[in-house]
Automatic annotation (TrEMBL), chain B:
GO terms for cellular component: plasma membrane. Residues 48-334 form the ABC transmembrane type-1 domain. Belongs to the ABC transporter superfamily. Lipid exporter (TC 3.A.1.106) family. This is ABC transporter ATP-binding protein.
Length: 611, 608
């Protein structure tokens, strides 16, 4: 019976050092039961059941201790005195105790299923809910893998400890003390000997546990590095193949795999020594007990039955003692896990919705002295941004790579919040609006579109679940995404990570259709057309013109053709808007703008062609 | 979906299936067994030694209770008679020796089995990783990176788990079980038989548990996989989730999946909750029986008290292993499932096999030829129905055409990501299928729109194009492509760590790094598939200026939606439905009245 073996790890444990640099939070103490303790509220609905479980556990221990004592009675009573009449009743007592013990184990295991799984499931639900509320800033810093390991591995660790570890810890200590008292009571010199033999085991266990944790962490870290290499080799397979760097990548992987091998071997050696030690001490003690016990029987100070019971009971102690170290390690591990979970749970969503909703929004958008800087950055990405987009108007945002265009557009649906200044819609600060209300007003089509593992239809209707078939079709046509009708199951084809894979251009068009379908008052197109070919782009632009006529639009543009969708252009340079005007005006008046948009300003088309 | 036949179950095909026919299961099991045998073969000697050690170790361990019996039966009477503790001391000495032997052999066993296990793991990791890298792009596109990752992480982990904890447990448990049974019979046949009466029941019970647990365990894995997929997808797509107010629906789905997982877990725990006390019950009833019958036998002098004591000690050992075996049965199962999948992966043949007698090509000139090339992903719908094309060495060719016209396919055929269904593709007169892989990669490099950056510094990423390049060469490459300025503006210049998958670099910046990488690789044939589309105009202009020099002495194939890129080409191919419909120098095509002229006009208008 080894509880730490009873469950499998389904997910490789992520490296603990893979956490994002967290300079703000103080270093947590190694063993803080605080986070774990705070989870107790999740057990509240099960208090009655828990009491019951503990009761069953305690009675079970009693039964398991009593059984060898019956054996003693049999030997000392009927066998020694030839009293065959007492044999059967004692046998029945043993049988009864055996049945009761088994039944109590059943009760304990069966009843703990509800609370233990309930706790895990509830925390996971809450964690997920919380994560969905946390803003982009948080998600930008945390890799999804780290969040996943908290939601799966860490929660399982906690579940295992609360479900098994904690119970075993208390039960073991209890069993240990009761049996030791019993042994002392039977024959105190031998009892003392057994108690003394537990000392080296406990000392070594505790020492072992510390080293074991350290080396286990190291293995985990190295496995994490290995996993990173695996991830990159899988996702970057095209690049690796394109350059024929198979061997290079393999060598890197091989080095890391060897490292894991070496550390794992250290771990094997360490635990081999430890386990051997665990087994050899009880055996030596047994030999001593036999020697001294037999001498005592010879001397008449001990009965034969007691000696037999003594040895049986003594062997019962081996497991509780040996497992102490493990269970303590488990406790520590689950505390670390609880810390890791709580670290996420304690992150207050930096972006929380206000209370206001807008009835019949007009879509009057204003940036008022907006500044944005990444936490810890010395230079802001945006500063002193002033921009007004009137209802129905469309503004193109033009700027060089890295000038903050995407940051600017993310401010509108509050994926991020400005660090100074404000963004208003119809005069309301967006921070005063409820998030659902705000995000109903604003829809964004991103340059790198995200499609979810669900049908095309669901993906498109994400922003507006009640859209009709006609509206759906219209949006598809606007985005020139008619290819969806040719998919194997048409609109019901499953796409995304778990489904059919689509090309970049196809994905962009779906993302565009999605944004259009939600018929927002404010439509943000973040360089949505970059992966389309010229002809398709022209068709999409034509259709978008109609859509944008009815909505306020912000269009991030790299190309003149996209800029032409807009009524006016805002030039973003050096982190702020330097010019606002019509395309032609800017083209003639602003050299910077010309540099950005006039494709062939200094490229003589004939030069390349004639070479 | 039609029911596949046995022959369809090659490679990874079985992964997508829920229900497997008996025949297929046998096939899969055989395949896993072959892989296992293959992995174990190099360790034959070590395993033989291991077997010897474990037998000695267990014999020594099992002997101890027996020796206790001898001590009680043979050691105590002489002392009661007052003839001294000589026998007793001998017996105790033997016990100590047995314990020491057991300790030493056990330690040797743990170390040796650990070493074998870790070596097997290392070998498996290497093999699977290498194999994945060898498999062609067509495989990866179908199989998806997620599954590659889980094969190499969680599946390997499952096998590691078995090797680390399960193996030791299983061997010890089985040996203890049989050793104990034999010893019980040796000690006393009638009492031994009584003690072994429940054994068949025990085996039946264990078999029932195993079967149930197989079903339940599979369900647990399935449900947790769904939880993970949904979780990861929500978190990676959180921007869209929040922007489109998907949270409530997501929460609903997650709660459902989470509940399913809980239910599956509950089923598995209920099973254990029945099984564990069941084993205990059988064990306890046996102990009671042995106590009564053994007591009666001892009472009548048929057995000694020592035998009875030994029986009680042995019976404890007898039932514990059963729990042990079942405890790690899940480990065994998941390792089995993992092995099945891994063996499937290893069975996959690269879609573009390595040539048996590879031709080495040094100093490739870069003449590319397509001869009657037909290519189809699905037989009925060929992407390229039949293509003939010659690109002389040094020529820059621009490919123009609508999405789906076959431009990218053409590019992929030249880089041999795929092989043509019919016909052949030649480089400098050599069929690509016969060309040595390294020579091919040295000669042909493709830059696509999705440019992956590996974790490491910017310099590392550029150097990926040529691992032996000096820092200076890396800088030169970046300068030539116009990436030097932006790299220098990064916090640590060329030593800046790029974050996870390119982290905070913009798409355009990543693109520039990818260009520098390709330039450093210095191939004879350079393929640019939409490579400039995510650059802004000034960067694109820089790249284009650089391209003129870069492309001067090499063959180039440029696929671009923007016609500005096309202008640096010597020759334009307009493609439609897999066929070349126009072919000629750009200025001549512009002057003519074909499709390209139309496209060009439209493009010029869009610029104004």
């Amino acid at each position: 019976m080894r509880p730490w073996r009873s469950e499998n790890r389904l997910i490789p444990r992520r490296s603990l050092d893979g956490m994002p640099p967290d300079t703000s939070s103080p270093r947590r103490p190694l063993l803080s039961s605080n986070s774990l303790w705070r989870m107790r509220s999740y057990l509240r609905p099960y208090v009655a059941k828990l009491v019951f479980i503990w009761l069953a556990a305690l009675l079970g221990i009693g039964a398991s201790i009593a059984l060898p004592l019956v054996g003693k009675e049999v030997i000392d009573g009927p066998v020694l005195h030839g009293d065959s009449g007492a044999l059967l009743p004692l046998g029945l007592v043993a049988l009864g105790l055996g049945v009761v013990e088994a039944f109590l184990i059943f009760i304990r295991r069966w009843s703990q299923i509800g609370p233990v799984l309930g706790l895990e499931t509830r925390i996971r639900d809450d964690l997920y809910e919380h994560l969905q509320r946390l803003p982009m800033g948080f998600h930008g810093e945390w890799q999804s893998g780290q969040l996943l390991s908290r939601a799966t591995t860490d929660l399982s660790t906690i579940r295992r400890f609360l479900g098994f570890g904690m119970l075993f810890l208390v039960m073991n200590i209890l069993q240990l003390s009761v049996v030791t008292v019993l042994l002392l009571n039977m024959y105190w010199p031998l009892g003392l000997l057994v108690a003394a033999s537990a000392v080296p085991i406990i000392v070594v266990s505790l020492r072992f546990e510390k080293r074991y944790i350290k080396i286990s962490r190291q293995v985990q870290d190295e496995q994490g590095d290995l996993a990173t290499l695996v991830e990159e080799s899988a996702i970057g397979i095209r690049t690796i193949k394109a350059f024929g760097r198979r061997h290079h990548v393999y060598d890197q992987y091989d080095d890391a795999a060897r490292k894991v091998y070496d550390t794992s071997m250290d771990k094997v050696r360490l635990s081999a020594r430890f386990f051997t030690f665990l087994e050899v001490i009880p055996n030596f003690t047994l030999a001593l007990v036999l020697l001294l016990g037999a001498l005592a029987v010879g001397g008449g100070s001990l009965t034969l039955g007691t000696l037999v019971a003594f040895t049986t009971l003594m062997l019962q102690l081996v497991w509780p003692i040996a497992s102490l170290g493990y269970i303590l390690a488990m406790a520590q591990e689950s505390m670390t896990s609880a810390d890791r979970v709580m670290e996420v749970m304690d992150t207050v969503p930096a972006i929380a919705g206000g209370a206001r909703t807008v009835e019949r929004p007009r879509g009057h958008l204003r940036f008022e002295g907006v500044e944005f800087r990444f936490p810890g950055a010395d230079r802001p990405v945006l500063h002193d941004v002033w921009l007004e987009v009137r209802p129905g108007e469309t503004v193109a945002v033009v700027g060089a790579t890295g000038s903050g265009k995407t940051t600017l557009t993310s401010l509108v649906p509050r994926l991020i919040d400005p660090t100074a200044g404000r963004v208003t819609i119809d005069g309301h600060d967006v921070r005063d609006l409820t998030l659902p209300a705000l995000r109903e007003v604003v829809a964004t089509a991103f340059e790198e579109p995200t499609l979810f593992s669900m049908s095309v239809r669901e993906n498109l209707m994400l922003g507006r679940p009640d859209a009709t078939e006609e509206e759906l079709d219209a949006a598809i046509r606007t985005a020139q995404a008619m290819f969806v009708y040719d998919l194997p199951w048409g609109l019901d084809t499953r796409i995304g990570e778990q489904g059919l894979s689509l090309s970049g251009g196809q994905r962009q068009r779906l993302a565009l259709a999605r944004a259009v379908l939600s018929r927002p008052r404010i439509l943000v197109l973040d360089d949505t057309l970059s992966a389309l070919d010229v002809e398709t782009e022209a068709l999409v632009e034509e259709a978008l013109r109609h859509v944008l006529r009815e909505a306020t639009g912000i269009v991030v543009a790299h190309r003149a053709s996209t800029v032409l969708l807009a009524d006016k252009v805002a030039l973003l340079a050096g982190g702020t808007i330097t010019h606002v005007g019509r395309h032609q005006e800017l083209l003639t008046d602003v050299p910077e703008y010309r540099e950005l948009l006039a494709q062939d300003a200094d490229l003589d088309p004939s030069e390349g062609a004639l070479r | 979906m039609t029911t596949p036949t046995v022959t369809d179950w090659r490679g990874v095909a079985s992964e997508d299936q829920d229900e497997l026919s008996e025949k297929v299961s046998v096939l899969l099991r055989d395949r896993s067994r072959r892989l296992l045998g293959d992995l174990l073969t190099p360790h034959r000697k070590a395993i033989a030694l291991l077997t010897a050690i474990i037998v000695v170790s267990n014999a020594a361990g099992l002997a101890i209770p027996y020796l206790v019996k001898v001590g009680i039966d043979a050691g105590i009477p002489p002392m009661l008679k007052g003839t001294g503790p000589g026998t007793l001391i001998t017996v105790v000495g033997v016990i100590v020796a047995a314990a020491a032997t057991q300790a030493l052999t056990r330690q040797a066993f743990l170390k040796l089995s650990g070493r074998i296990g870790q070596s097997i793991l290392l070998e498996l990791r290497r093999r699977v990783f290498e194999h994945f890298q060898r498999l062609s792009l067509s495989f990866h596109e179908k199989y998806t990176s997620g599954r590659v990752i889980s094969r190499l992480t969680s599946d390997i982990e499952a096998i590691a788990e078995l090797l680390q904890s399960g193996f030791d447990g299983l061997v010890t448990a089985v040996l203890t079980l049989f050793g104990t049974a034999v010893l019980l019979l040796v000690l006393d046949v009638p009492l031994g038989l009584v003690a072994l009466i429940p054994l068949p029941l025990l085996l039946l019970f264990t078999r029932w548990f195993r079967r149930q647990s197989a079903i339940v365990y599979r369900r647990t894995r399935e449900t947790v996989a769904l939880v993970i997929v949904h979780f990861v997808e929500s978190m990676t797509g959180i921007r869209a989730v929040q922007a489109f107010r998907r949270e409530p629906r997501n929460q609903e789905i997650f709660r459902q999946l989470n509940d399913d997982y809980r239910d599956a877990n509950a089923r598995s725990m209920r099973l254990v909750a029945v099984f564990m006390p069941g084993i205990k019950l059988i064990g306890n009833v046996t102990v009671a029986g042995v106590l009564v019958y053994g007591g009666w036998l001892a009472l009548h002098g048929e057995i000694t008290v020592g035998v009875l004591a030994a029986f009680l000690l042995y019976l404890r050992q007898f039932y514990e292993p059963m729990q042990e075996i079942s405890q790690f049965y899940n480990t065994l199962q998941s390792a089995g499932a993992a092995l099945e999948k891994l063996s499937g992966v290893l069975e996959e043949e690269p879609g573009v096999p390595e040539p048996r007698e590879p031709k080495v090509l040094t100093g490739a000139r870069g003449r590319v030829r397509f001869e009657g090339v037909r290519f189809a992903y699905v037989e009925e719908m060929p992407i390229l129905p039949g293509l003939d094309l010659t690109v002389p060495a040094g020529q820059s060719v621009a490919l123009v055409g609508a999405t789906g016209a076959g431009k990218t396919t053409l590019a992929k055929l030249i880089s041999r990501f795929y092989d043509p269904t019919e016909g052949r593709v030649l480089l400098d007169g050599i069929d690509l299928r016969r060309l040595d892989e390294l020579s091919l990669r040295r000669a042909v490099v493709m830059v696509t729109q999705e440019n992956f950056l590996f974790s490491g510094t910017v310099a590392d990423n550029i150097r990926f194009g040529r691992p032996d390049a000096t820092d200076r060469q890396v800088r030169e490459a970046a300068k030539a492509i116009g990436a030097h300025e932006f790299v220098m503006s990064l916090p640590d210049g060329y030593d800046t760590e790029v974050g996870q998958r390119g982290g905070r670099m913009s798409a355009g910046q990543r693109q520039l790094v990818a260009f520098a990488r390709a330039f450093l690789a210095d191939p004879a044939v350079l393929i640019l598939d939409e490579a400039t589309s995510s650059l802004d105009v000034p960067s694109e202009r820089l790249v284009q200026r650089a391209l003129r020099t870069i492309l001067a002495d090499r063959t180039a194939l440029i696929i671009a939606h923007r016609l500005s890129t096309v202008e640096i080409a010597d020759r334009v191919l307009v493609m439609e439905r897999g066929e070349i419909v126009e072919d000629g120098p750009p200025d001549r095509l512009i002057a003519a009245s074909g499709r390209f002229a139309g496209l060009h006009r439209a493009w010029l208008e869009s610029l104004s």
